């Protein structure tokens, strides 16, 4: 089970940290990720991290502004979002997939809304 939290309404240039608490299984062989979906748009990849934290990947649109990390002791994945822009406004979802499988075959949490005003 994945439980996302931390969304809110902020102004452009502000920061937010999203959290995704993972439970119900061992995630050692999983990658974790954040996706987002804005109204009327397709879901898009934001960032991913291996459960060990040793490997990360980012969408070009968030590189240098967002940082994904994992706290194994707390079974929690974070997305630190800095220098937020209005175009970052979306519902943000966390996901987990076993290595070698697709994200659609993995587990998804409910979304947390991020709204960035200009």
What does this structure look like?
- By secondary structure, the chain is mainly β.
- Strands 2, 4, 5, 6, 9, 10 and 11 form a seven-stranded mixed beta sheet that branches.
- It has strands spanning 2-5, 8-11, 16-22, 30-37, 44-50, 56-58, 66-71, 76-81, 90-98, 107-108, 112-117.
- The termini are far apart.
Summarize the structure.
This protein is an all-beta fold and 118 residues long. It has strands at residues 2-5, 8-11, 16-22, 30-37, 44-50, 56-58, 66-71, 76-81, 90-98, 107-108, 112-117.
- Coarse shape: globular
Tally of DSSP β-strands: 11
What is the count of DSSP helices, taking H or I runs of 4+ residues? 0
What structural category characterises the helix and strand content? Answer: mainly beta
Distance between the termini: 34 Å
Helix content: under 10%
Beta content? over 45%
Question: Can you tell me the residue ranges where pLDDT is under 50 for at least 5 consecutive residues?
Answer: none
Largest sheet: 7 strands, mixed
SSE series: EEEEEEEEEEE
Query: In angstroms, what is the radius of gyration?
Result: 13 Å
The whole-number mean of residue pLDDT values reads 95
């Amino acid at each position: 089970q994945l439980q996302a939290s931390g969304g809110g309404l902020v102004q452009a240039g502000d920061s937010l940290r999203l959290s995704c608490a993972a439970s119900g299984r061992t995630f050692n062989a999983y990658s974790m990720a954040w996706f987002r979906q804005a109204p009327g748009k397709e879901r898009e990849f934001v960032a991913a991290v291996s459960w060990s934290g040793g490997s990360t990947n980012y969408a070009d649109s968030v590189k240098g502004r967002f940082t994904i990390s994992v706290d194994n002791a707390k079974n929690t994945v974070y997305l630190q979002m800095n220098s937020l822009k209005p175009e970052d406004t979306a519902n943000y979802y966390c996901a987990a997939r076993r290595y070698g499988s697709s994200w659609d075959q993995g587990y998804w949490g409910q979304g947390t809304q991020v709204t960035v005003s200009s």
